[in-house]
Structures are given as C-alpha cells and as structure tokens.
C-alpha cells in the first residue's frame, strides 16, 4: 500500500495499445489509451506497466507525453531484460495494465526561466514531456533541451531552424517536434552522427553556460535525467556554475508505490542522511542532496 499522501493520486487501468513503433537498436515508442493516468501525469512522473500476463512484476517507464484530451500516454524505452522484451511484442489492440502517474515531478521556478533540460539515453523521454509542457505554460520560459545518445536517436533528426548563442558551430541537429513549437534542442554523441556535438551532453551544456553573461546565467536552472554517471556530471556542472539542479533517478523497483522500500537511495537532507524511495519520494531530487561530492 502507498502512504496516505499518495492515496487517490495513482490510477490503475486497462490501457489499449494504440501504436508501437520500433526504432534502431531495440528502441520503441509505445502509445496507449489510459485516460485516468493521462489526466494526472506531470513531467518527471512515470507509470508501472504490465509487460505480459505471464510476468507478475511490472516495469517502470518514464512518461514521454501525456494528452489529457485524447486520454493517451506515450513512452520511449529500450529493451533491457526479459520484461521489456515481452513488452516489445505487444501490438495495437492489445491491452496492458497501467498504474500511474507515480512520483514527484520536476518543479521549475519562474525566477529562473532559462531551463536547461539535459536528457541522456532513456532519460530523454521526460525531457520531451517537460519541454512541451513549458511551451504550453503562461510563464515566459526559455528552455533549451540537450539530448545525448551513443546509439541512433529514436526520432528523425534534422538541422534546427532556431539559433542558440553559445552552441558550437556545426552543432545543429535537433528534435523536429520541439523545433516546430519554438523550443531549441541540440544533440550530443560520441558516435559521429551528423550535426551532433562530439562529446558528452553535459560537456555541451558546459560550453553553453560558459558563453552566458552573469545576468543570463543567474536565470538558469538545470534539470537532468539519464544514467547515473551523466546525472553526477550534471550535478558537477551545476556546482561549477553555482546553479540549482534537479535530477530524475533511475532505480530497480518492485511495487513502485512506496510499500516495499526496494528502491531506496541515500539522500543528504538538512536533517542529515536519509534513505528515500525513488518511486514516491522521487524520482526527482535536488542534485546536491543526491551527489553532494560531485565536482
């Protein structure tokens, strides 16, 4: 059972698979109809999906898009392990059990409208959700989305039509869906893909931050999701420029509603060290609390 503060906020519903699109290197974009979850989803939250009727354990997936009007959820995932391999076999018309939305979302602050969103690998989905939500908000946010991958990106890239000061010449590849709504994005990789930054996505973020003047830099807040080494690098980047940073952690979990405490991580709070559950206390945490020694 979840703790009282989470009761009534998580829905469990049978969701129809609407589409399931494969991308290179065993990546998939899954769209399901789950209106209760879609109505409550926020950037940074996730859902717990049943991959197959023969598998009792669900799998957590970050939400890439939620459309409350259509009642749909969109997920991007890469096959890792037997469960997601079974999920990849689901076809349009199939039904999956979806539990969500779960967890604490990203919390941007209007006094820092220059939101720097950094996503690596399977950490890309919540950054897309987050960026698109900022575009639809009344606050004049100025997001920049940086995404890194060492395998082909799960979307068709193209040169951006939006210029970004401080981005190295030639780094022009973007996510077209974001470009189309006026949100600049840039891509980083060590695989040599055309138009991408040659290096880690956090290094690209460092170059952009270094090019800002003091006033502009004071308006920046960093948000990151991806592998732990990337999150640590994002925390170090925030520390180097004295900026706030929120990170979304990835952790194996069983129940995903706070009951089993199988996904706990050490967090350094004002009251001292504490074990927090990634599922309901996170997955979003203050980077300084999770990586206090990042430098």
Structure commentary:
- The longest helix is centred in the last third of the chain and has 13 residues, at 228-240.
- It is built from eight helices and 18 strands.
- It has helices at residues 35-40, 82-87, 124-135, 176-180, 201-210, 214-217, 228-240, 287-290; strands at residues 11-23, 27-33, 46-49, 59-62, 65-67, 72-78, 95-102, 114-120, 144-148, 158-159, 173-174, 185-189, 197-198, 220-225, 245-248, 264-269, 272-277, 284-286.
- A hairpin with a 4-residue loop joins strand 5 and strand 6 (72-78).
- It folds into two domains: 4-102, Translation factors (Elongation Factor Tu (Ef-tu), domain 3, Beta Barrel); 114-249, Nucleotide-binding domain of ferredoxin-NADP reductase (FNR) module (Rossmann fold, 3-Layer(aba) Sandwich), CATH 3.40.50.
- It is an alpha/beta fold.
- The strands form four sheets. It has a seven-stranded antiparallel sheet. Strands 13-12-9-8-14-15-18 form a seven-stranded mixed sheet, sandwiched between helices. The chain has a two-stranded antiparallel sheet with strand order 10-11.
- The relative contact order is 0.14.
